[in-house]
Amino acid sequence: MVLFQLASAPVLAGIFYLYIRDRYEKEPWRMVAAGTVYGWISAFLTYGAGTLLEGLLPHEETPFYTAFFSAALIEEGVKFLLMLGLILPNRQFNEPFDGIVYAVFLSLGFAWVENLVYVVHPVMGGYGTALSRAVLSVPGHGLFGVQMGYYLGRRKFGGGRWQRWAAFMVPFALHGAYDYFLLRPERFWDIPFWGLEVFLWILGLRRMRELLERSPFRPTG
């Protein structure tokens, strides 16, 4: 039970933080829940797609292949497709910042399932795993979601068609680089990893602030 709580705590903290940041026109709780459930579904679909890919294309798990194909391509691809299914028929998607809200809820739903699998695992899991994933993996998924939601929010409210493609390509590239730096055994790769970590936080917070300022519900005067 304690490990379950430790695996869930950073995800719930991220959901609560983003709900607070959505200050001008908050999403209904049912849509918050829907985004999270879509994230759960994406985790199971990712597992199935990864298993299918391994069967169809036998390969050697190098750091590059694992980071960009086994992880980033499948995970971000599945999340992107489910994100489109979540937002396209959604009338509550009525301001640019909502793109970030839904993408992060979906990403954190994915991270919730993934975190539970790792943290409660009898061999890989434990308190150390819970701590490291709370600091790195869960925020990482949330920050990739910020990028996906940013471009989808811009696309819906007057942006060019290229932004829909950027909504997949940017998180894919960032996710792949993030995992690649982590998987490299040489200590040298710690430097670009932590540089990317700082960059993701700075960029993510700027993206959120920018779309909040674009809200049509923002008070003026």
TrEMBL record:
<keyword id="KW-0472">Membrane</keyword>
<dbReference type="Pfam" id="PF13367">
    <property type="entry name" value="PrsW-protease"/>
</dbReference>
<keyword id="KW-0812">Transmembrane</keyword>
<dbReference type="InterPro" id="IPR026898">
    <property type="entry name" value="PrsW"/>
</dbReference>
<feature type="transmembrane region" description="Helical">
    <location>
        <begin position="65"/>
        <end position="88"/>
    </location>
</feature>
<keyword id="KW-0645">Protease</keyword>
<keyword id="KW-0482">Metalloprotease</keyword>
<keyword id="KW-1133">Transmembrane helix</keyword>
<keyword id="KW-1003">Cell membrane</keyword>
<feature type="transmembrane region" description="Helical">
    <location>
        <begin position="6"/>
        <end position="20"/>
    </location>
</feature>
<feature type="transmembrane region" description="Helical">
    <location>
        <begin position="165"/>
        <end position="182"/>
    </location>
</feature>
<keyword id="KW-0378">Hydrolase</keyword>
<feature type="transmembrane region" description="Helical">
    <location>
        <begin position="100"/>
        <end position="118"/>
    </location>
</feature>
<protein>
    <recommendedName>
        <fullName>Protease PrsW</fullName>
    </recommendedName>
</protein>
<feature type="transmembrane region" description="Helical">
    <location>
        <begin position="32"/>
        <end position="53"/>
    </location>
</feature>
<comment type="similarity">
    <text>Belongs to the protease PrsW family.</text>
</comment>
<dbReference type="GO" id="GO:0008237">
    <property type="term" value="F:metallopeptidase activity"/>
</dbReference>
<dbReference type="InterPro" id="IPR023596">
    <property type="entry name" value="Peptidase_PrsW_arch/bac"/>
</dbReference>
<feature type="transmembrane region" description="Helical">
    <location>
        <begin position="188"/>
        <end position="205"/>
    </location>
</feature>
<feature type="transmembrane region" description="Helical">
    <location>
        <begin position="130"/>
        <end position="153"/>
    </location>
</feature>
